[in-house]
Amino acid sequence: MPAAKHIRSINDEHPAWRIWTRIELLILHLCVLGISGVLLGAFWVQFVGGEYPCPLCLLQRMAMILTAVGSIFVITHGHYARIQGFSVMGLGYGMSLLAAVVGMSVSTRQILLHIVPGDSGYGNPVFGLHLYTWALIVFVFVIMVSGLMLIFGREPVLHCPVCHDTEPAASKTPHGLKLPWYSWCMYWLFGAVILANAVSAFAEAGFNAYLPDNPTSYILFEGDGTSASGTNESSPK
Amino acid sequence: MIAAGIFLCLFFLLSSTLRHLPWLSVILFFLTLGFMILLFMHHATDKLDLNF
Q: Among A104, A112, A121, A135, which one is most buried in terms of CB atoms within 10 A?
């Protein structure tokens, strides 16, 4: 007699756990949408406020994107119970935590660069704090959420209506990932934000390898696209 | 251009999460993180003349 397959279904569970599983999925989406919102806010300051992002600002944007990629990894690989014995949640939230620690280091450095009394900081404050201070708050928040989700998170495989608690179940999605429409909207919005950042960074640096410490224009649109702009003096960024 | 390149790496990383190749995403993640740390080290050691 063949051994019965252990099949876990969200429908077999207590309603409270079912709700918690949905809340987890909601939190994952909110993390990505929140980071997208923060990055769009930075674009607002850049283009409407007329401020040029410095190299450290761009590094903080990159770190924020990496933290959100961890959440997206959990969403898109939720149909796996485990990957060669590794937990999908461990991989996803681990990525978010590592990226947040790197981002926190960058924003802390920028705060310390301007901590001397009398230094007005880089750029204009938004709601009373500079963008790099807000970035530090965002990274601390990401670390807290990731830690809590690692403690209280349930297997993302339970996000599927019916999933087998086995190794990678590629057979369940033979024609690509079956994500709900809201996940796709979030995914492409986030992708567009990343591409917009790539274009913006290229416009700011032109054909130079590095950005100036204190950029004052979009070098790509000046002369041959390599002319020096901004200064490398004073406390950078 | 390096910063724009890292953003493109991030976009490829995002695209890789749609494929049934989870380890590709993990490798790309560490690759991108490594590039970011190198860029950070470059800017952080600017004034020390380490030519990093």
A: A135
